[in-house]
Amino acid sequence: MKRTLALGGVAAGLLASAAIAAPAHADSVPAVNLANTNLAAQQVAAFWYGQAKANLINATPYTVETTVPTKHVSTGGASADTKAGVVGSSGDQKAATGSLKNVNLPKTTGKVFFIGADHKPHWCSATSVQSQYKNLVATAGHCVYDTKSNATTLDKWVFIPGYYEGKTPWGIYVGKTAYTHYDYSVYEDGDRDYAFVTVYNGVLPTEGGTSAGKYESQTYRTKWQAEAALKKLQADKTTVASKLKVEEVKELSRFGKETAISVADFQNYNKGANLTGNGPWAPFTSVKTDSIKPSEYKFWNKDSYVSQDGTTLYYRVPKPGKRNEFDFFKRTFSAKILTTYKVVGFKFAIGLKDVGTLGSNVGGQGLAYNQKIGTGIFEFGYPSGSHPDGNYAFSGKTQKWAYGKTFKASAPSLKAEELVGIKSSFTGEGSIGSAWLYRYSNAKRLGYLNGVTIAVSDTDGNNRIDTNVSPYFDGETLGVYKAAAANWSGKIV
Predict the structure, then answer these.
(1) 395: β partners
(2) Is the keyword Plastid assigned to this protein (predicted)?
(3) Does residue 449 contact residue 111 with C-beta atoms inside 8 Å?
(4) From start to end of 357-477, where are the E strands?
C-alpha cells in the first residue's frame, strides 16, 4: 500500500490507485544507526571474525516472511509514479539477454550477516550499489529491520561480498546507517520492503588475527544488579563480549556472615598453611577443634584425612613420650563470607586493517526506477532451503542466477498490493535480498538494480517455488536511495 509522504510525516490516508505518489524527501526517510562509532564498528567486525569465524560459518538463512501465497494482478498493481530513469553504475554497460548460457556472476553480490530476533546469527542476500562515497548496500527491508520482535534494527549487521564458507575475499563491511521508506519502518508496508545501508570501509584481520580476553565486571551486592548489568551489556552494540554469565563470588569480609565452609575452601583462604597446626589463620577465617575417641578415627594408616562430605578434617597427634600412642581430633572450619556477584565471560580482541571502500573493491550496480512492466531482469543471490515438496534445490553456499520478465503481483499477507514478480525457482531461505538487475552486462558484470527479492511463492500449487517478488522501484525508491547515497561512512581503523 503506497501512501503519500509529507515532510517529516505521512499523509492521512491511502492514495487511490490512479493518484501519483510524491517523491520521498530526505527528511522523511527514516535513518537508524547500526554502529555509529569506530569502536562499535571494530567490535562488530571482531564479533564475526572471532572464534575462527564461527558465527559466520554457523549462521543460518533468515526465514522471516519468506514463502507467501502470491496472487498475480492482471489489472491495477504496480505503476510508475514519474518518468523512467536510471542512476549510473560504476561502469557503462550494454544489455545482456536471458538467452545467455554462461552468465558471469557479479562481484557486487554477497551476504549480509546479523543477529536475529532469536539472538542467533543469520544471513540474507544483498548487493553493492553505486554511490558518491562507494559505500552503499541494498537488500530487503526485513533483512535490516526486525519486524518480528519490533526491536528496530537487527544487531551486528555486516555485508560480505563474495562470501564463501568463512572466506571474506574483499573484507567485512560493517553497516553504519540504514535507510528505508517511512511506510515500511512505520507500517511494515510490503510495497516498500527495501533498505539502503551505508557501510564503513572494509576490514580484514592483520597477521596477528583474533584473540579473546577475559571479561570481568565490577562487584555487585545483589544478583538482581548483576543480571541488570548483564542485560545492558548484551543489548549494547558497542561490545562484542560473549559467553557472558552472572557468577556468584564469595569474599572474606568483616561484614560477612559467619558461615561453615569446606576443608578445601579453608585451605584456599590459607594457602600453604598446615591445617592440623595452630595457625595463624587468614583474617576472618577460624577453626573449631574437638577431641574424639580413638574408635571414631577410621583410617589408622593415615595421620589425617577429610570426611566424605568434605567439611571435617580428622587428624592425630603423637602423645609426648609415648610410642605409637595418639591423641585424636576433628576440626571444622568457618569464615565470614560476603556473597557478591559479577558478570564474567570473554571479550574478543582483534587486529584489523583497512582495505578501502566497498565500491573500490567490487564496484557498484546502478539504480533503475519506473521501468516498464515486462522488462527482462537477472536475479542474483544465495538461495537455499527446500521447495514445499521437500526437495533441496539450493545450498546457499554459492551465488546463483535466474532470468525472467517482470509482471504485476500482490501479496496481501505482506501488506503488499503493488509488487512485481518474475518466474524464478529461487527458494526463500537465503534468497531474500537478492538483487534484480536490469540491463545486466555479462562483460562488465554490472547493470541497474531494479528490485530486491522479498518473498517467494508456489503460484501454481505444484509444491515447487516458481515465483519471486519485489517491491516496484519508483520515484520514492529513488528518494530513499538518494538520502542514503549522500552520506559518507569513512574508516574504522
Answers:
(1) 384
(2) no
(3) no
(4) 366-369, 376-381, 384-386, 392-395, 400-405, 407-411, 416-423, 435-441, 446-452, 455-457, 467-471
Sequence-distant (6+) residues with CB within 8 A of 245 are 230, 343, 344, 345
- pLDDT score at 286: 96
Cell of 454: 522479498
| Whether residue 41 sits in one domain with residue 83 | yes
Residue 5 has pLDDT above 50, yes or no: no
390 within a domain of the structure (yes/no): yes
Give the Cα separation of 73 and 225 in Å (integer): 56
292 & 367 share domain: no
Write the pLDDT tens digit of every residue in 328-338. Answer: 999 999 999 99
In which domain, by residue range, is 316 found? 251-339
User: Does residue 407 sit within a domain?
Assistant: yes
- Please give the Cα distance from 385 to 376 (Å, whole number): 26
Residues 258 and 381 in one domain: no
The answer to whether position 188 is within a domain reads: yes
User: What is the model's pTM?
Assistant: 0.71
Q: Assess if residue 273 is contained within a domain.
A: yes
Distance of CA 209 to the CA centre of its chain: 21
Residues 256 and 175 in one domain: no
Cell numbers at 482, concatenated: 538518494
Q: Are residues 316 and 371 located together in one domain of the fold? A: no
Q: Which three cell numbers stand for residue 245?
A: 554469565
What pLDDT is attached to residue 93? 46
Q: How many domains does the chain have?
A: 2
Mean pLDDT within 461-476: 94
3-state secondary structure (DSSP) of residue 281:
coil
**Same domain? 132 vs 169:** yes
Supply the DSSP string of 306-337, one letter for each residue. E-TTSSEEEEEEEPTT-TT-EEEEEEEEEEEE
Residues 414, 477, single domain; the answer is yes
Judge if 291 and 257 occupy the same domain.
Answer: yes
The mean pLDDT of 292-312, rounded to a whole number, is: 95
CA separation (Å) from 236 to 34, 68, 232, 242?
11, 34, 6, 12
What are residue 417's DSSP bridge partners?
none
